[in-house]
Amino acid sequence: MQQESGALSFRERAGYGLGDTASNFFFQTFNIFLLYYYTDVFGIPAAAVGTMFFVSKLWDALNDPLMGALSDRTQTRFGKFRPYLLWMAVPYGVMGYLMFAGPQFDDTGRLIYAWVTYTLMMMLYTAINVPYSALMGVMSPLSSERTVLSSFRFVGAFGGGLLISMLVRPMVQYFGVEDEAQGFRITMALFAVVSIALFWVTFATTRERVESTTEEHDTIRRDLKLLLRNRPWLVLCVAGVLTLSSVALKGAVTLYYFKYYVLDDGSAYFWIFDRTTFFLTMNSLALIIGVCCTKWLSDRFEKKFLMIVLSLGSAACAAGLFFVPPDQYWSMLLVSCAGAVLSGPTAPLVWAMYGDVADYGEWKFRRRTTGLIFSASMFAQKFGLTIGAGLSGWLLAAFGYVANAPQSEDSLLGIRLLFTVIPAAIALLNVLVLMFYSLSDTQVASIERELALRNSA
Hints:
The structure is a single chain. By secondary structure, this protein is mostly helical. Helices cover 78% and strands 0% of the residues. The chain is built from 17 helices and no strands. The chain has helices at residues 10-41, 46-72, 82-99, 107-139, 143-176, 180-205, 220-228, 231-261, 275-292, 294-298, 303-320, 329-343, 346-365, 370-398, 409-419, 421-434, 441-456. Belongs to the sodium:galactoside symporter (TC 2.A.2) family. Keywords: Membrane, Transmembrane, Transmembrane helix.
């Protein structure tokens, strides 16, 4: 194995970050708007959507380790992971558009169309995002540099989320006028073009430096066994399930919370924004502010300590929202943005920790499986999305939700719980799991030095 040391250029860091901007043109749209689109625009029952989300995401999550093992074994002149950004960008963008094409089928036809396009899109998301995530682990051998790179990644990710928060509702209203389906169709076509272009920029501006060889006895089965013996990864795996379950639940019901509890009618409230769009926009800005604090925080505190403290703070803010009355919009915004600032650094921190876990695995087992580690981590997170997305549809139905109608007291209570208390409870479980993470920053630095000596020899 040959490695090059030193910090990456701003161009390469920014280019890598734009890859997650590309991802979030669809990921964040799915997280916030997809359940609403399927129930209130495309006309599919909430329980049926919940089942589709659960089954499709479960199938998709199972594909992640296979994609990671495949990319670990890919050998091209561009490297192991970068080529997939080039190859998969167009299919990814096209399928993302087709999900919102909204053909005029009957009830059964719409459900089948949603199943097919959603499942294929999630598979393509795996095919491009597993290599993209693993790319961070081979751009630099330094943990400190990966933390910086992870910060750039999530500035790009939350920047994409900011654009989604700001633009989707105004664009849907502008392009659709009185036809929401038409508005979504044109909006997602534009997002598809931008997403493809950004993935190609990431491909062109990045480089793989940490190389490894795959020997004949390095089978996928053996790699999986080594992964399951990597205890720090196992902790992060469970934490990933819980984190994304919380995110998926809250994200999926945000529009319902404002439409039926806050009673936002979509009229302009602040400049061109309605209250929902302004709320989403300010929370996205708060997340970016939190991400920008990551380097300053990680230079002063252990990653594990930061993850626990920040997660506790964001959970407290989420639970506090339950007690804010619907007419107290600015209090609602303030509490939510405080939680978003606290949540911001956790995303780059945990992905930097995955890079540390990859180093630990190479140090302990003398076999580097970057693609598998990152893909298996994505499997855990997608399984969390599976749980959260499935529960959001099922619980809405269980509480008596009826699309485009005044909600009962039980339904409103369910929407409020899904937006506040339940995500907070899951976040607290995540804190308990993180306490078992055993890889300290001091140990990571020692592992870096030993690997550098071993590889130079």
